[in-house]
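During the practical work, I selected for study one protein's amino acid sequence and its backbone structure tokens, as given directly below:
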Amino acid sequence: MNHSELLREIVGTYQKHGWQLRRILLLPETRAELGAEVPLVGTPIEEAAVNALWFSRPSHEQHEAWELRLLAETAFALFETFEKEETEEQREEMRREMEARLRDYVNKK
């Protein structure tokens, strides 16, 4: 399955369960492969060391859940819940740590 089809399939599955796509992380070569046909126009796309998708949705007790899903046919994701008191800076720091953990996971394969 090509990256464009895989991206659409994963996003569709997550949306069925109430998740919202927040960011698309792509390797430079994946971005070049997708070219102008990157689906989901309007979603921020960032160059990264791994192909992945950031999703979020409201969670229990006014928390917000974020999930970083590897863009691959084999499902693998990292999950974190943020409290409403956490600043955006704290959240972004944790998201960057999660991206590093995902990158380490991919590189160990």
Q: What stands out?
A: The first strand starts at residue 20 and ends at 26.
